[in-house]
Design goal:
This protein is α/β, with parallel strands linked by helices. The protein has 9 helices and 11 strands. The protein has a 9-stranded mixed beta sheet with strand order 3-2-1-4-5-6-10-8-11, sandwiched between helices. It has a two-stranded parallel ribbon with strand order 7-9. Helix 4 (90-111) links the parallel strand 4 (78-81) and strand 5. This is NAD(P)-binding domain-containing protein.
């Protein structure tokens, strides 16, 4: 399999790259800074798959056609979005990368004949309604983040996530289209440190919970490796072994989009 990894020098992506390569998949890692190329190529040593580095700035992706050029140069089977402005460049750049460039890559990926999976690394608070499983104090923490701490980031992620959800619904409604997995992985607050390999996955009351970046990468790799994973999948560290947690989410079709206005998303983007 050919994987296009956007945001390849991010901490989650750096953990994810060797996992994907160990499956004998090839990874094309997209980075903006040529100085990061050698570090990423180093991750490929001794792996079953091959890693390539594509020097390209997501700041230049202004349309689906721009995204399509990158897709056409790689012809990936799977696309992973692990990119973001990271607070650099102010609110305008956050909207340009986390929202607009992400949407352009989704548009191009869903329309691509080669792509069959798109995994978005989002965040657990990217939603508009308090879910039934989340207590008031945890939801209050999310609302503080979304309205006061990181309002532009929250807006950008919500827009991208809702667009992805609408695209996935439309894809399912098209009976002539090939199967497509739209996976929205939604980790809590990211922290460094070694993986615990123990998580709460799918839905969790811990709206203000945290998770190691390495655990996010492990879960992303496991979700991509299956043909029965899709939807909104919340993630924090917990007590369930990671393989067991992924199996449960897949088999029970757990989707934390529950409670959100999915029909409204479709009508807004595709009136």
């Amino acid at each position: 399999m050919q994987v296009l990894l956007l945001g390849g020098h991010g901490k989650v992506a750096l953990h994810m790259t060797p996992l994907l390569l160990n499956r004998a998949w090839n990874v094309t890692s997209v980075v903006r800074n040529p100085a990061h190329e050698s570090e990423i190529l180093e991750l490929g040593k001794g792996r079953k798959g091959k890693v390539n580095v594509l020097i390209s700035s997501l700041d230049e992706v202004k349309s689906p056609a721009d995204a399509r050029k990158i897709l056409d140069s790689v012809t990936p089977d799977y696309v992973v979005w692990s990119a973001g402005a990271g607070g650099k460049g102010g609110p305008a750049r956050t909207i340009a990368i986390d929202q607009e460039a992400a949407k352009h890559f989704m548009t191009a990926s869903f329309a691509s004949p080669s792509v069959s999976k798109f995994l978005m690394v989002s965040y657990i608070g990217s939603r508009k309604k308090q879910p039934r499983w989340m207590p008031d104090d945890q939801w209050a923490g999310i609302m503080h983040t979304n309205t006061e701490a990181l309002p532009t980031y929250a807006k950008a992620k919500q827009e991208a996530d809702e667009y992805m959800t609408a695209l996935a619904v439309r894809r399912k409604q098209d009976t002539s289209a090939a199967p497509f997995q739209a996976i929205n992985l939604r980790p809590g607050f990211l922290k460094d440190g070694p993986a615990t390999r123990k998580v709460e996955l799918g839905i969790t009351p811990k709206g203000h919970g945290s998770v190691t970046r390495e655990d996010v990468a492990i879960v992303a790799d496991l979700l991509l490796a299956r043909d029965d994973t899709e939807g909104w999948i919340d993630l924090v560290n917990g007590d369930v072994p990671v393989e067991e947690a992924v199996e449960k989410v897949a088999k029970e079709k757990i989707d934390s989009v529950e409670g959100e206005d999915v029909e409204g998303m479709v009508k807004r983007f595709f009136p």
